[in-house]
Specification:
Elements lengths: L11 H8 L5 E6 L4 E6 L8 H4 L10 H21 L3
Antiparallel strand pairs: 1-2
Length: 86
Amino acid sequence: MLGAAGTQRRSWSEVLDALYPMAADIQTYGDKDTFVFEGTVHRDKPGGFTDLRRADPDPPLRQEDFTRHRQDALDYISKTLRGNGR
């Protein structure tokens, strides 16, 4: 949930809306002890990108983000696995 969720100041949809005009993307990599955010932004539009994701020691963990991730997982199980004939 840390990689595709909102921040203290913005919901996940607001983060996506802010990334689009900058031609930017955020990738995340998680392990047991670390979590890395990696950002890519068009070289002509770097302003504002650093404000989107700051190291947030207290992520909000909103119910709407949890519900979205849960529904994505259920959709994967019910639709993708069914489509593979298993």
